[in-house]
Amino acid sequence: MRQLTYRSAGVVAWEEVPEPDGPGPTGALVRPLAVARCDLDLPMAAFGLFPGPFPVGHEIAAEVIAVGTEVQTHRRGDRVVVPFQVSCGACRPCARRTFAACGAHRAPLGASFGFGPSGGGFGGGVTDVLAVPHADHLLVAAPAGTSPVVLANLSDNVADAYRAVAPMLREEPDRDVLILSAGIGAIPLYAAGVAVALGAPSVRYIDRDPERVAIAARLGATASLHEGPWPKRFDPAAIVVESVGEPAGLQCALRSTEPYGTCTTVSVSFEPVTLPVVELYTRGVTFHASRADGRRLLPEVLDLVASGRFDPLSIPTTVVDWGDAAEAWLAPATKLVVAR
User: Fold this and answer.
1) CATH number given to 2-153+317-339
2) pLDDT tens string 54-67
3) What CA–CA distance (Å, rounded) separates 328 from 319?
């Protein structure tokens, strides 16, 4: 079979590899129908952030082609969303629904599809056949009538945006939202769209890129362009989403969080950051940093999308043919989806 493989910084290519031996008693084999490129996938492939070679892609919508003898809830032909993190569903962390902390599957970056050895050595989504363990727990049934192109966006980036705003809005629907972005990736734009869809009374979006500012405005946010260095703070909000990826931006986001508000970072900073701890302490600010727990969040995200309240394709999405994935994977796009 063919799989798209990261070989070295700036190089991805199709390779012929053996098919998986079989699903195993509790696993499944799936045929990916559409795979979205996560915000982290592009720098991973362009700059070689993690050791390779490894198969790429972890935002996956697929069709089940085989299940193990003990699988009860899925059968051949089912359409599913594959959570990007691998979890067993049975260990103590999974029993607490902290699936991203699964005790049965551990790796330097957390057990995940599409990260190679750093993610535990699981397969990537841009492939003909993908082996998925713990199928009854891990695979999430796709709503009827929702296209694979839409579904592919949901398990990571849309879930990441959702977790940055939805839990706080559920607790207090009158909270205002502030999103800071440095002009890259889809997650901050998804966060703006989700916050508007969930009825936040005010959604402010600040970005360095004028095209993205215009997109956020179309989504219903009050959007503005930021130029120059990040200030010490903006007018505060109870819910702040940071997607700047540099220390000054994170510090600004934290200082822009209201007392007893929550600041969530959805970016990855690879350099040390000095936190204004005394200010956070005296104002009771919660700072949240983690990967999105896709398996836990997916049912809520699917409901939001299937109900028509939020359309991931309202963010500019470049859809390319499956066979063109190698050429497209390193090309600029706010959001890229490769589809059969």
Assistant:
1) 3.90.180.10
2) 999 999 999 999 99
3) 10
